[in-house]
Amino acid sequence: MTKSEFIDRVAAKTNFTKADAERAVNAFLEVVTETLKRGGEVNFTGFGKFSVSKRAARQGVNPRTGERIKIAAAKVPRFTPGSQLKNAVK
């Protein structure tokens, strides 16, 4: 499902106009992004949790040359599904 299709589905379920649904979806994405940038987490009980995880520095291998390279430490976004979402997908 693309973002556009998602906006169409939100508009249909909420009786919002497509423009209102797009603003709502964009606002949701902005709030989640800003919260994760600050190192926080967004938790929806039963649905899941958006959080930031730290990935340690590690050694890697360039597949073309076989040369060893150092991959720097990084922060990565993570989503952990909640129990209701897991059960719905089963």
From TrEMBL:
GO terms for cellular component: cytosol. The keyword DNA-binding applies. It comes from the Bacteria. This is DNA-binding protein HU-beta. The keyword Transferase does not apply. Keywords: DNA condensation, DNA-binding. One of its GO terms (biological process) is chromosome condensation. It comes from Thermoleophilum album. GO terms for molecular function: DNA binding; structural constituent of chromatin. Belongs to the bacterial histone-like protein family.
